């Protein structure tokens, strides 16, 4: 809008339409600045240390916005009495100055707000670390219950803050690293509970202590990595070492080779030779691996030898072409470039085949989890010899899976997927020994229910990571073949004339500052709930499940309503919002029907499921009644907007509880289409890169906030145990 004002053409004749358009733009800028500054001032009031700086920046922004509005007040220019009025036509430099001041002050507000967000995350992390120190030292179960409840609440707060930050990150590598760290924190929070309980129950057990220490150590590392990402710093000023893969090496090498077509002198032959040497060194990870097939090993060695020969030929022709640019030599150079690049493509295809075929075989072989089942059985029997035998087998399995992740990293194709492979490798490397220590504890105390529960938790983490690897493998293959995952598009939007004959006549009702602040708060709550619902739906392996589809649709519509509270998105008028609320309520009713169908398949908790379904129907009916009710006047319309968003929020809160319940019931009965699996960080990237994302602004990455909150709520039952 500012660019439009500054770039407008000074014409002698100005039509009324032009004058009105300029005035509308100026007023729109001023209104937008007003909304922006209102938020900035609210932030300033909550953060005393930056209040003065923030207030000054907000005042400057507001003044600049008002100046732009005054200079664009040109609607009355044709009247003689307004000849002395200074406008954009008589003082264009004034608009330029005001625009510069506005952009400068707005940038300052954003920078200050960002500092506050970073400080909030650091403060939240420090609270978590302090409570972890207390948890590590407790000696009584009652004290542990109290402190863990506090710890759970602090982790929920940290989850919300880091989830929002992850959404805001622009760097894909940082986003992937943040997702990996938050996934560790989510899983380790549950592990910390059972490992600590086991240690309290068996204080003299060395394996129980080792098990607990491992969880605490891993959580501290994950917390530290989150802060490194947020503050963009490394301890002791170290530089981050980017993971080097064969794919990235080949891509860079080919770019240099193909660059010779444009410039024969932009790099030396030594540079090109060094790049190839690095790539071929990395192929040794495949040729030296005990798990690479003989056929793949031979092909990789042959292609490596061929690549050296092709580069020698290329360098020879290249050097000649530098001395004498003849047509024949340039044609020979083109042939050498093509042959070198083709050889590198063949090498890339071969290592991809070697890594993915190994991964597919290993995942298929370990899908029955026989070793984990055997450890559980022999642990309950107290058979120490058998446990020792199966821990050796688990160690072998761990080495295989770690090697698989290392090879997949080379062929992952994107930096976020590389980071996900590194995270998976670390997970197997750490979780394997933790399962072993948990199994040893159970074997030493075979009648201990808490030791059995602890082993179950670590085994579930292992199974979860294996499941994630299957999905990761699919994504790596998609990238290699040029495919990208697509997210279902679901946004029911009102269209003028289709749903309401009078819709064109309706105008958006302007909200005053206080009303904007109130709606903004409700909108943020709705935003967090959509993140939680998305987190739950993304855990379902069968994305075609009817319950998942309805849940995703409702989340998408709730997100569009959240955007409305920010003055963004496709819902432009209050009538758009009311219609969206009606469609949302209809979708909720359809979900209730799906829940009734599910209740016919299950036995456990059937009354609870039916009760929740009826509650959902009742809430959706109330929302529909509110959305359809007539509202005359500004105050009544705002009340209706507030009520619609509030009731949508209540439905989304219920939905957050329903999704995990449904999956739990499906698990128990082994029926239905859905199976709950913890959401892998790489899948967040899949949503992010989807070609058909719900909206350009929509980026969702959360960790299991709701499951954590439920776990904290249920802590009261621990005391009785």
In short:
75% of the residues lie in helices and 0% in strands. The protein has 721 residues and is mainly alpha-helical.
Features:
Alpha-catenin/vinculin-like_sf, 23 helices, Four Helix Bundle (Hemerythrin (Met), subunit A), disordered C terminus, mainly alpha
Provide structural commentary.
The chain has helices at 2-6, 16-46, 51-71, 92-137, 141-168, 172-201, 206-231, 246-259, 269-287, 294-323, 327-365, 370-381, 384-410, 415-444, 449-480, 513-537, 546-565, 574-599, 606-628, 634-669, 681-688, 705-713, 716-720. By secondary structure, it is mainly α. The protein folds into 5 domains: 1-75 and 89-113, Up-down Bundle (Four Helix Bundle (Hemerythrin (Met), subunit A)); 126-231, Four Helix Bundle (Hemerythrin (Met), subunit A) (Up-down Bundle); 246-359, Nucleotidyltransferases  domain 2 (Four Helix Bundle (Hemerythrin (Met), subunit A), Up-down Bundle), CATH 1.20.120; 364-475, Up-down Bundle (Four Helix Bundle (Hemerythrin (Met), subunit A)); 513-669, Alpha-catenin/vinculin-like (Four Helix Bundle (Hemerythrin (Met), subunit A), Up-down Bundle). The longest helix is centred in the first third of the chain and has 46 residues, at 92-137. It is globular and about 80 Å long. The protein starts with a helix and ends with a helix.
């Amino acid at each position: 809008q500012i660019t439009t004002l500054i770039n407008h053409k000074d014409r002698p004749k100005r039509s009324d339409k032009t004058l009105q358009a300029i005035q509308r733009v100026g007023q729109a800028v001023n209104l937008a600045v007003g909304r922006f500054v209102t938020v900035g001032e609210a932030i300033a009031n909550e953060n005393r240390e930056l209040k003065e700086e923030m207030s000054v920046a907000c005042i400057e922004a507001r003044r600049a916005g008002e100046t732009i509005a005054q200079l664009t007040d040109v609607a009355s220019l044709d009247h003689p009495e307004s000849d002395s009025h200074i406008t954009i036509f008589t003082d264009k430099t004034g608009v330029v100055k005001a625009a510069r001041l506005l952009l400068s002050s707005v940038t300052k507000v954003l920078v200050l707000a960002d500092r506050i967000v970073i400080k909030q995350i650091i403060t939240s992390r420090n609270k978590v670390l302090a409570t972890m120190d207390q948890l590590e030292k407790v000696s009584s179960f009652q004290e542990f219950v109290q402190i863990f409840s506090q710890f759970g609440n602090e982790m929920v707060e940290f989850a919300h803050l880091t989830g929002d930050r992850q959404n805001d990150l622009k760097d894909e590598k940082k986003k992937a690293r943040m997702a990996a760290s938050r996934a560790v924190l989510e899983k380790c929070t549950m592990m910390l509970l059972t490992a600590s309980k086991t240690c309290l129950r068996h204080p003299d057990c060395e394996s129980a202590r080792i098990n607990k220490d491992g969880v605490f150590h891993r959580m501290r590392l994950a917390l530290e990595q989150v802060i490194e990402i947020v503050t963009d710093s490394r301890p002791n000023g170290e530089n981050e070492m980017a993971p080097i893969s064969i794919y990235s090496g080949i891509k860079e090498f080919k770019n240099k080779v193909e660059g010779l077509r444009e410039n024969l002198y932009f790099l030396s032959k030594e540079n090109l030779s060094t790049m190839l040497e690095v790539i071929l060194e990395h192929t040794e990870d495949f040729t030296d691996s005990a798990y690479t097939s003989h056929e793949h090993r031979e092909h990789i060695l042959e292609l490596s030898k061929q690549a050296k020969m092709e580069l020698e030929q290329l360098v020879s022709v290249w050097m000649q072409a530098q001395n004498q640019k003849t047509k024949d030599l340039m044609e020979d150079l083109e042939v050498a470039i093509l042959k070198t690049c083709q050889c590198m493509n063949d090498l890339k295809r071969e290592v991809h085949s070697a890594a993915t075929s190994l991964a597919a075989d290993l995942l298929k072989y370990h899908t029955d989890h026989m070793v984990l089942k055997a450890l559980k059985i022999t642990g309950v029997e107290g058979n120490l010899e058998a446990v020792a035998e199966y821990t050796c087998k688990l160690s072998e399995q761990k080495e295989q899976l770690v090697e698989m992740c290392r090879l997949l990293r080379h062929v992952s194709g994107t930096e976020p997927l590389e980071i996900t492979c590194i995270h998976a490798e670390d997970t197997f490397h750490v979780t394997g020994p933790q399962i072993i220590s948990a199994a040893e504890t159970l074997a030493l105390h075979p009648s201990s229910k808490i030791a059995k529960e602890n082993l179950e938790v670590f085994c579930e983490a292992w199974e979860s990571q294996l499941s994630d690897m299957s999905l990761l493998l699919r994504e790596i293959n998609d990238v290699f073949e040029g495919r990208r995952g697509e997210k279902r598009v679901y946004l029911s939007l009102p269209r003028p004339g289709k749903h309401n004959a009078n819709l064109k006549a309706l105008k958006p009702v302007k909200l005053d500052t206080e009303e904007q602040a109130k709606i903004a708060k409700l909108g943020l709550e709705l935003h967090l709930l959509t993140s939680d619902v998305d987190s739950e739906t993304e855990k379902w392996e069968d994305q075609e499940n009817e319950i998942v589809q309805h849940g995703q649709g409702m989340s998408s519509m709730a997100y569009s309503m959240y955007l409305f509270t920010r003055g963004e998105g496709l819902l432009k008028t209050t009538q758009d919002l009311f219609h969206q609320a009606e469609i949302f309520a209809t979708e909720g009713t359809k979900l209730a029907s799906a829940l009734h169908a599910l209740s016919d398949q299950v036995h456990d908790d059937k009354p609870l499921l039916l009760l929740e379904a009826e509650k959902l129907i009742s809430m959706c009916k109330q929302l529909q009644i509110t959305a359809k009710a007539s509202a005359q006047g500004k105050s009544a319309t705002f009340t209706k907007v507030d009520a619609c968003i509030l009731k949508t929020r209540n439905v989304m809160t219920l939905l957050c509880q329903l999704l995990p319940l449904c999956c739990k019931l499906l698990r128990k009965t082994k029926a239905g289409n859905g199976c709950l699996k913890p959401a892998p960080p790489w899948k967040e990237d899949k949503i992010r890169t989807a070609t058909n994302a719900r909206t350009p602004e929509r980026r969702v990455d959360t960790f299991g906030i709701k499951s954590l909150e439920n776990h904290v709520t249920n802590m009261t039952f621990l005391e009785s145990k």
